[in-house]
Amino acid sequence: MRAMDGTAFTDVTLRRLEKNGCLAAEGLWREVFSEDTEAFTSYYFSEKAAENRGLVLEGPEGIRSMLYLTPERMRVLGKEVASSYLVGVATREVWRHRGYMAALLKEAMALLRREGMPFCFLMPASPKIYAPFGFAYIYDRPVWDAFSLQKERLSRLSEQDAKRAAAFAKDFLSAHKGVYVFRDQAYYRQQAAELAAQNGCIYGYEEDGVLRGLCMYTCEEGRPEILEVLAEKEIEERFVLRRREKRPLIMARILHVPAALALLKSCQRRRFAVEVKDPLLSDNNGVFFCDADGSGTDVETLTAADGWKRTEDGLSLERGGERIPLLSADPARLTEWLFGYRPLPEEIKDAVRPLAPVWINETV
Fold it and tell me: Which residues contact 291 (CB under 8 A, 6 or more apart)?
């Protein structure tokens, strides 16, 4: 195992954790994330940790550093896509500043890329930690005023309401959002348990017996917080107020460039190329030819044999009288473009639809 600068770790070994093996890092989790309540930590390791995969660095005395990979089924412009939510990234205090976290992040990204995963995402403690690894923000969460919540107009949903909640969420999200975590009955049953561990619940807003809105609410240690509201704007305003500001919440990283580009759609056929330089995942380096339409994008890695030549200004490729735009990006810039956090380049933005709007409010 090596640090990012190539220095070998001589006294640690890398170990993958699967299923119940993920419980092995509970002690480190409790030590590093001591701000979590006992109720939440107990819930996490009794109900959720075993659903993950983990990577840890171990010394003779035990686990020094850890990272969990939570599998997520995503909906991206109507298509189901496998992704991973990176959580629990931490190192025991005495072993920090040795490159352990960097080594685990690089190992995790390489693993997920080999599996063909287009992207992964995380909720950063600080964006400065993850920016050097090509992560960039893709989503700012709305901020709701938890003290304005009119609970008397809402009903507390139980696990038996999961089917209704999932049906409402499916219709709402497919109509309004481009990227979100897939939600079914199991999702809402788990969310109900997770929120209960944070002294919260799922509230529903109903009119004439019809579910018109959902609200995820927590109140850990007396601090109320609204994690999400799903409702049409005029419905939402009947039971809660939204502040004007938004809070940067989720960062993502493109792992497999061709797989990520293939998710783009275009309102009219558009051909272009993207040149990527990725210092951490060398298989992402290259020039990728994209042929986009309303169903998706066909992506090919260009070689000299394909006959495309750079124009003199380096901004286009041409072959046989055809000229297409050539866009250049590092992983962070590409991530921002694809998820609509930064506008797509002028050459394609009139036709190509980014993977947006993003709606990822899951916090574990």
Answer: 269, 271, 297, 298, 299
